[in-house]
Amino acid sequence: MVAMGQAQQKSDSGEGSVLRRKTDRGRARHQARAMTLAKSLRLSLAKVADDLLDLALAALAIKVEEVAGDDLQEHFDARNLLMLLDGPDGRPAAAALDPLLVGALIQQQTMAQVLPDTGGDPRPMTDTDAAVTAPFVNALIKRAAALPDAPADKHLLAGHAFGSRVDNPRLLSLALEEQAYRLITLTVDIAGGVRQGQILLCLPEPDEAVAQVPPEDAVEEVAGKGNQKSATLSQSVLALDVGLDIALARLRMPLARLGQLRVGDTLELNGARFDRAEVLRPGGGSLVRGVLGQLDGCRALRIVPEKRGAQTPNRRASDRAGLDQRAPEPHSPPIPSAPAEMAPIDVSPAAPDDLPDMSDLPELDLSNMDDLPELDGLPELDDMPDLGDLPDLPDLSERKAG
Fold this sequence. Notes:
Structural class: alpha+beta
Number of helices: 10
Radius of gyration: 51 Å
CATH architecture of the domain at 32-238: 3-Layer(aba) Sandwich
Number of strands: 10
CATH superfamily of the domain at 32-238: CheC-like
Order of helices and strands: HHEEEHHHEHEEHHEHEEEH
Largest sheet: 6 strands, antiparallel
Shape: elongated
């Protein structure tokens, strides 16, 4: 009886091991064919980078962990590009891209080439970086949300799209108010080993009741909200918000006077006019003039075009209408005429009868000749040059004006 019991125990043990091996093998095959969350992100990363940017990206490692909402701040790096993602049902999420990956995405879109990293401290991330990389993040989340087999994984990704850039980890963690989040860290190979970057997705855990239903509506929401696959770099940059600084008047004062200003002081703004508002350049100076007013209850500025004639010279015939001037008449040079002959000049002495009457002149008094000055100092006339050798003067009566 003891021997038979031991034999039966060995037989049961053997059958159990065979069944266990068959079950494990079947489970492994199912897992190999199943589309998990990690596999969905790995495939979507490579496909989106190739279709959208013509760039080779590959996920070297994917790490998934659950983190409480109060501990999120320590998982965000201030040097990374921090994004706040809008989510379904008003539940925001977050994404973070390190500077190496952001630089590679920008280089690929601007130069069609990714350069090796030169080292050094990374530059601060800007709104322009967020606008350029947002289409890539939206496309990655949208494609990955449609692939997982588990409804919970679909709900985890679906419905999220880029919302805005956040300056620091503290503000980003304050915007995430859920109790638990799932952190997904992707280590990315860029352009076949030229660089290595990292993507961090911080997604709120879906509710258990909602996670059992495939999120088809959420996927459609992403398609309608974040489908920017065809957006180019210029379109992304032109979609940025730009603030306008408008000045109604300019005031100059000494620096000492400026330092003495206190609350309640009044400054006289001479010449402030709403119809001569100036739009200021970011670095200073006037960009354009306009009229400041309101439209539909909102502040509005109507741009007033400047007169071109005051800045640019008008040289073409098409510019004459704006100058309000008549067409110029053709210029023809005058025809030279033959010089007129001048009348002969009469140089003959006048006749005595033609002389004026001088009878009213006073008489000369020659009685006091002794008062005349002595003339002893005058030179003798013998020393004067002989005038007999002078040439004869021409007869002017026969000359004519040339």
